[in-house]
Specification:
It contains 24 helices and no strands. It is mainly alpha-helical and 507 residues long. α7 runs antiparallel to α8. The longest helix is centred in the middle third of the chain and has 30 residues. The N terminus and C terminus are likely disordered. It is found in: Membrane. It is a multi-pass membrane protein. Belongs to the major facilitator superfamily. Sugar transporter (TC 2.A.1.1) family. This is Major facilitator superfamily (MFS) profile domain-containing protein.
């Protein structure tokens, strides 16, 4: 297909005035702390659920199956609904919280939502670290889920609105880079905590989320509000102009301000943004808000993020070796690949990274599934050479995800919605993400038990579907001003039937 036929905007768009400013960089660094905590919470659960003292205290049946049961299949030893509830409770709490977060973010601004997220993270990490029973343990995860719900609602919007269009991709992927750093930090801490004598290392793992949570909470008190939000919530255009001048580092910001005011005037006519979101002209954005987070989860990444140490123990590796393997594959590789994505996303474009990552993930999943099918039986371990080969291809898979669906699954929804439905659209994205994550987290260990090595072919099939979806239905959004994003849908071969043809005089 030709570029125009796929809806790729090829003509050069006008740029707003401005440059990279220290205020924007520092503000976005503080806001992106929400990503570190999110990643930390993802990575920490898989590590502690593979620690024997943790299992013995809270999930003794799983510990017994792992240590003493020689009849249960390798793929089924961690199959416990209570154990998966520990992981997945965070995401169902985040799902519920995201709907409240939408109203807070729209009515009071992005900054208060970030503050609520930080406070919830602090409370959840304290309760988890001090847990003496399963109720306290899961209650702590629920509080963390509330924090994740507010952070994932507000932080991507904050980053997209603070950044200039030509830097928006890099800044937004900074959130996903922080998620990757959080996963890496969690895996490193788990590896060290497992070696603590006395069996209380898991408390260190769960409670250290309080460190980035404290930075986010205190930093949120000092964060400036985005110009978009200031205009949306008041008629003080001069205050918004002053903030825009500070964030852009120049005096002439009138062109961008005019677009923000126009978008705000449109948004204030909307009384029911969720109902507005269902209108035909917003069909492309609604489809992307649902499809992007759903597809992100069915890549199978949470097989690695949540359960990498559990998966490696399934292969017969020791507790310490499993945690070290998780550090290398899910942690270091993911962080480095996300950094590469941050550097390249505004140069290569979103669609190119999606294509590269999709092919890479599919090939590596097929190889991992094939090796496990041929070499790992129901009982006993796997030869060391094949175990290390699996770790290599798991790392290749993680890299493919980390420079494609990982960051872009959040970036695309955060940049495509007009202001009048932006909070509602982001809320749908977050809710679908949490619902899909909860489903995968709650069902994965049972799926592993029943599908065995076929689990990787299952997720590989989804990767083929989603790569085709992007190729056919996602236009390029790189370097398009966020308030001018309607152009990409008007020029797309499929979506223009919903939003209308591009006019020659369109601004």
């Amino acid at each position: 297909m030709a570029a125009a036929e796929l809806g790729i905007i090829t003509r050069k768009d006008e740029h707003y005035n401005g440059k990279m400013t220290l205020l924007v960089v520092l503000s976005c660094m503080v806001a992106a702390m929400g990503g570190i905590i999110y990643g930390y919470d993802i990575g920490i659960s898989g590590g502690v659920t593979s620690m024997e003292p943790f299992l013995k205290k809270f999930f003794p049946e799983v510990h017994t199956k792992m240590k003493e049961d020689t009849k249960t299949s390798n793929y089924c030893k961690f199959d416990s609904q209570l154990l998966t509830a520990f992981t997945s409770s965070l995401y169902i709490a985040g799902l519920v919280a995201s709907f409240f977060a939408s109203s807070v973010t729209r009515t009071f601004g992005r900054k208060p939502s970030i503050l609520v997220a930080g406070a919830s993270f602090l409370a959840g990490s304290a309760l988890g670290g001090a847990a003496t029973n399963v109720f306290m343990l899961i209650s702590g995860r629920i509080l963390l889920g509330v924090g994740v719900g507010f952070a994932n609602q507000s932080v991507p919007l904050y980053l997209s609105e603070m950044a200039l269009p030509r830097h928006r991709g890099a800044f937004n992927i900074g959130f996903q880079l922080c998620v990757a750093i959080g996963v890496l930090s969690a895996n490193l801490i788990n590896f060290g905590a497992e070696k603590i004598t006395g069996g209380w290392g898991w408390r260190i793992s769960l409670s250290l989320a309080a460190v980035p949570a404290s930075i986010l909470t205190l930093g949120a008190l000092l964060l400036p509000e985005t110009p978009n939000s200031l205009i949306q919530r008041s008629n003080d255009h001069q205050k918004a102009k002053s903030m825009l001048q500070r964030t852009r580092g120049c005096e002439d910001v009138q062109a961008e301000l005019d677009d923000l005011i126009k978008a705000s005037e449109n948004s204030k006519t909307i009384k029911h943004p969720f109902k507005k979101l269902m209108q035909r002209k917003y069909r492309p954005q609604l489809v992307m808000a649902i499809a992007m987070p759903f597809f992100t989860q069915v890549t199978g990444i949470n097989v690695i993020s949540f359960y990498a140490p559990v998966l490696f123990r399934t292969l017969g590796l020791s507790e310490s070796m499993s945690l070290l393997s998780a550090v290398m594959s899910a942690g270091m590789v993911g962080t480095c690949a996300t950094f590469v994505s941050m550097l390249m996303v505004d140069k290569l474009g979103r669609r190119t990274l999606f294509a590269i990552g999709g092919i890479q993930m599919f090939v590596s999943q097929v190889i991992v599934g094939s090796i496990m099918a041929a070499e790992l039986g129901d009982i006993g371990g796997i030869r060391k050479g094949y175990a290390y080969l699996l770790i290599i291809f798991v790392s290749v898979y993680v890299a493919g995800f980390a420079w494609s669906w990982g960051p872009l699954g959040w970036l695309i929804p955060s940049e495509i919605f007009p202001l009048e439905i932006r909070s509602a659209g982001q809320s749908v994205t977050v809710a679908v993400n949490f619902l899909s994550t909860f489903g995968i987290a709650q069902s994965f260990l049972s799926m592993l038990c029943h599908f065995k090595s076929g689990i990787f072919f299952f997720f590989g099939g989804w990767v083929v579907v989603m790569t085709g979806f992007v190729y056919l239905l996602l236009p390029e959004t790189a370097n398009i001003p966020i308030e001018k994003m309607d152009r990409v849908w008007m020029g797309h071969w499929f979506w223009n039937r919903y939003v209308g043809q591009v006019r020659e005089d369109s601004d």
